[in-house]
Amino acid sequence: MIAEIIEKYCIENGSNFEHATLLDEIERYTNVKVQMPQMISGKYQGQMLSFLSKLLRPKRILEIGTFTGYSGICLASGLSEDGKMITIDINEEHYDDVNTFFEKSGLSDKIDYQIGNALEIIPTLAGTFDIIFLDADKKNYVNYLPLLISKMHKGSLLITDNVLWKGKVAQEQKDSDTLAIDQFNKQLNKHPQLDVIIVPIRDGVSLCYKK
Ligand SMILES: C[S@@+](CC[C@H](N)C(=O)[O-])C[C@H]1O[C@@H](n2cnc3c(N)ncnc32)[C@H](O)[C@@H]1O
Predict the structure, then answer these.
(1) What domains does the chain contain, in order, with CATH numbers?
(2) Residue 70's CB: how many other CB atoms inside 10 A?
(3) Which residues contact 106 (CB under 8 A, 6 or more apart)?
(4) Which atom of ligand 1 lies at the shortest distance from residue 67's CA?
(5) I need a labelling partner for 123 at 20 to 30 A (CA). Which of 25, 71, 85, 130 fits?
(6) Hey, CA dihedral for 113, 53, 142, 144, is it positive or negative?
(7) Structure confidence at residue 197 (pLDDT)
(8) What is the 89 CA–ligand 1 centroid distance (Å)?
């Protein structure tokens, strides 16, 4: 949604990742070996995830939608000394390679990578999380919402990807995927316990905290 030249400028003038070489390797791997490589968070969004995590120094992070591990490494880089991140993906295809990327990042001791349906796993997780990143099956965003709210404490941050769905949420005619995301955005907005802002970065990211 942001012009390429502007995004490039923002990336170049944002802080450099300590994991830049590894993240470049993950991007290359994703482009060559994975279907739908465009699902990766990429540099700009990765910078934002890493920035927010470092700012909040979370003890516990929950990521839904590991994919090739890019966003997970960005988020986990901000964990507190004794912090842990649970990351879940339904697809086991990249399991070994993603574990190798986590090992290379030096963060694997802090990362619990689980394969399974997040809708079934989330209710089994104990306690609450300081940061939750929702980046999985868009049609189920509305079904994730009550599960995730129950895993948030006062001040928890919920970050959700693809909330503008290539701008289609703002158009009059909406297909079923767009309607599902629009409904999720509206539920966040009217929820009495949540404060939310939509940031038009990449495909739209919403930042939401529990009051
Ligand atoms: C957009 S990709 C995630 C991208 C990743 N967060 C990143 O930035 O690199 C979405 C991922 O969600 C996973 N997914 C879809 N439905 C899921 C479910 N019900 N439970 C867990 N993971 C799911 C897919 O397998 C896919 O890897």
Answers:
(1) 4-210 (3.40.50.150)
(2) 26
(3) none
(4) 27
(5) 71
(6) positive
(7) 98
(8) 6
Pocket lining for ligand 1, CB < 6 angstroms: 39-41, 64-65, 67-68, 70-71, 88-91, 117-119, 135-137
pLDDT score, position 18: 84
DSSP 170: G
pLDDT in the model for residue 50? 97
Residue type, 116: G
How far, in Å, from the CA of 137 to the mean position of ligand 1?
Answer: 6
CB atoms within 10 A of CB 137: 17
The mean pLDDT values, 10 residues at a time, for the chain of 211 residues are 87 88 96 94 94 97 98 98 98 97 98 98 98 97 97 98 95 93 97 96 95 96
Could you tell me the pTM of the whole model? 0.97
Ligand 1 centroid to residue 39 C-alpha, Å: 8
The pLDDT value given to residue 155: 97
